[in-house]
Amino acid sequence: MSKGAKKIPKYKMIENYIMQNIKSGHYAKGQPIETEQELSRKYEVSRVTVRQATNNLVARGYLSRSQGSGTYVSEQKVVSRATTVKSFTEEMRAMGKEVSSEVLDFKVIAASKEISQKLNLEVDNPVYHIVRLRKADGEPMMIETSYMSVLKYPDLTYERLSQSKYSYIEQERKLTIDHSHHIVVPIMPTEEMIGYFGCDPTSPILKVFNTTFLTGGSILDYTELVINTEKYQYQSIRQK
């Protein structure tokens, strides 16, 4: 290692190893990967470190878990890492649009098994359940349902959510957002979505499953976005 070079954390080495095996086809879709115990021995680390690596890959959609039978390569398609992460507020303001957020729901719930895996938390840990209607120039653009750790962000408030959540994270909490991973699927709009968007009930719209990561690999939030494709074009710039 050259002088001044950063040492790669062990959990990141394990992530890279698993990803290489997925991309090479050594780990086939739907097939189990090595056990936590095997990876722990291979890298001479605790199972907690192994779990951090696998939890991150579960959150990003590359792996899935089946209770009592291990960790498997996910069947779903995963969209690659974006080169830049811009908040909706930043994006709309760059286009000269007036941004507003209507908080439809903001409460604390116990993390389900699915949400705890997405956020790399213990089951039943307190998490925020946040639903916002994001608008540009008064036009509804998307419905955003987010989950965040209460213990990590105890000062998150209704007032902060009425503005930019990313500004709260970066400017008030002084944290750095590094990248996000997302999966995009077409869905048919529900009556609730049609009510908010006024969209064509016979035309599909987009749903985005997004996990945002901070520098260092910790997870900021897990978000599901429903996008009004008649008003807003979802774009992503990706790295190879």
Structure in words:
With 240 residues, the chain is α+β, with helices and mostly antiparallel strands. It has 2 domains: 10-73, Winged helix-like DNA-binding domain superfamily/Winged helix DNA-binding domain (Arc Repressor Mutant, subunit A), CATH 1.10.10.10; 88-227, Chorismate lyase, CATH 3.40.1410.10. It is built from 8 helices and 8 strands. The chain has a 6-stranded antiparallel beta sheet with strand order 3-4-5-8-7-6. A hairpin with a 3-residue loop joins strand 1 and strand 2 (70-73). This is UTRA domain-containing protein. Residues 8-76 form the HTH gntR-type domain.
Explain the layout of strands and helices.
Elements: H1 10-24, H2 36-43, H3 47-59, E1 63-66, E2 70-73, H4 88-94, E3 99-110, H5 113-119, E4 126-136, E5 139-149, H6 158-161, H7 165-172, E6 177-187, H8 191-197, E7 205-214, E8 219-227
Antiparallel strand pairs: 1-2, 3-4, 4-5, 5-8, 6-7, 7-8
